[in-house]
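cron nightly-structures :: item 1 of 1
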Amino acid sequence: MENHHKEVKFISRSILYSVVRGILVGVGVGLVVVAFRLAIEKIFEFVIQLYHQAHDNKLYLLVIVIFYAFIVFFVGQMIAKEPNAKGSGIPQVEAELKGMMQLQWWPVLWRKFIGGSLAIASGLMLGREGPSIQLGAVTAKGIAEGLKASKMEKRSLIASGAAAGLAAAFNAPIAGLLFVVEEVYHQFSRLVWVSALAASITANFISLHVFGLTPVLQMPEHLSVLELRQYWIYMALGLFLGLAGYFYEIVILRIQHLYQFLSKMLPLSAQYQSLYAFMLIIPIGYFLPELLGGGHHLILELPHLQPSLKTLLFYLIIRFIWSMISYGSGLPGGIFLPILTLGSLLGLAFGQLAFDVGWIGQEQMNLFIVLGMAGFFAAISKAPLTAMILVTEMVGNLSQLMVIGLVALSAYIIMDLLGGAPIYEAMLEKMLPEDMEHHAEMTLIEVVVSEHLGDTFVSDLSLPPACLITSQIHHGKSKVVKGNSLLHAGDTLYVALPVSEIHTVRQIFEGEITEG
């Protein structure tokens, strides 16, 4: 009994310690990401003003060209010196947590901040959320190094920083936590989620003080739903969004073929290939400035514009093509918000078609904007829980959570049946070299026993060499692990292993790799 009380006290102290560390990470990440959002907003306003003035004075087009040339050269130089600062940044965070990569936190932090601010605010169809997640992760890594945290604690803080980055970028703290658990960390560890939740709430609190309490994508308060006998329409929408998500993934994973083709006509080194994207975005900025950027303003305008089906399809084609071109440039910038923008257009286009054939009423159209965002993101990320909570937090309306879940689940199932992979994991696979160096450095990780390993003996596991299960937590009690120790679903195990084996061991315990 005395040992049991000691265990409880130890776990309680560990949780309290995780909360304190999470708050510290949340403060640091909140300040960084809020500054990042402010920089993007101010520069983007300047760029849009230049495009508007160019209609009266063509010299402003020259100013835009000079500004874009500066970004190509300046950001290209930064990316060449620190390649891990380019793109979304989420695959790099996943790679670090899986032991496949070690990011230098300060070189990535300042280059991602400056390069991301310029690239995202330039008008290219890039999002701030992926970079915010990476900024959060590397900020947390810097804090962890300052605290002289252990390797396991450092990974926990990195995951917490990633959650806080998304929370501050979207004012969505619960979605930040779920994204890390479902998409990045892949483990529902109690100490990790407690730390991540504390970090997310803290970062979100700082963001709300600067940007206000209004949800990022606030929709009209009343979102009318269909009658129960019409719920098949929601499932049809999920089917449509799942197919669209699969097509999106196919294209974005092959967008570099376009840049290879362009480089044959105008040869440029890889670090300066963003010039192609800027050349192609200028006509869009001049004639359709409302379509520039990640798409935040467009989503907010959709309920009020009430565009025709033809206009929606036109916007959809432009946003799809140019978001692919923008991401393929390699500049620091993500696909998170562009995915939500495409989803809103797809959802509204589906709703408009359903209205035209008499399936739904006009008062139900706005709901399809929200459903489109949730379903499309759920399909592409293969993280339906995150999609549901993210969209409901962003639009500030939880009343239609059931139908949002129905569409997200339907889209996810279609994506899975088609064999689509989670987009960030697919990007990570393309990013890592085949002859990736394996690190012999040892570390300790925390894993949770999945259902398929329940009632399995430790001796029956086929773990990689040099891996050792040091302890097992069952019903709050710590046990020494032996070969004849029985594993139970939901148990927490602490495993000592080489850094390079983190991903493999987690796959074994999650059931992605079978035993034997």
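cron nightly-structures :: done
The longest helix spans residues 2-54.
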